[in-house]
User: What shape does this take?
Amino acid sequence: MLCYKMWRETRTRLLISATALAWVCLAIVLTQKGNRAHADPPLSYAAYIWKAVYKGYVRDFFLILVIVLGGGGILQERAHGTAGFTLSLPVSRCRLTFVRAAVGLAEVALLALMPAVMLGALSPQVGESYQLTQALRFSVLWTMGGAVLFGTSVLLSGICAEEYSAWIVCFLSMMFYSAAVNITPLQRIPWLNFFKIMSGAEMPYFNSADHLLVGPLPGLPLLILPAIAVGFVIIAARLSQRRDY
Assistant: This one.
């Protein structure tokens, strides 16, 4: 029942986010012919999809949606006057935080699958094809990368009383991190850049000539990324325990 409560509270955001992501993917596939023709040099369909979806602005849009999914919590409920009901439930604050995070991470995984679903359905309609295995493997990378940002959003939601403030701080944190790993000497270590892990750029499991994932996905980074997210959720749960609502 607790999972159902959390789902009821977040399902509207998930449905809106999934619809928005689907529309963006639809636009990219429908305009692919003209965009590929104007590219210099002209792009293959696989290269176009990678640059536009898995490395480009669709990935960034996905991460913004993940930040939105991670928002909300008892602190924000207090601002809306509903925290009393939630705190009266016969469960600990830690459990409330963990269940909310578990439901949210499942929603992140579902959102990460949306490009795979859309590409699989739409590509044949424009006379092209995109390997389902490729799309699903990118979905795995997106889920793990998105988990870090989701955990960050959950943590900041336990610190910032206003939900919009938590989203803004999380977005600014993402921008600061992006600058740090792309401009500073940290750029020499691509494994520190979860954006590159998500897209495969400069990674040994990505073939830059064909713009396709090759070989096994990186095991250690895909364990570390969700571990970081879990660590952020644990900190948020501890903060919730100590806070006087």
Summary: The chain has eleven helices and two strands. Residues 2-242 form one domain. The first strand starts at residue 206 and ends at 207. The chain has one domain: 2-242.
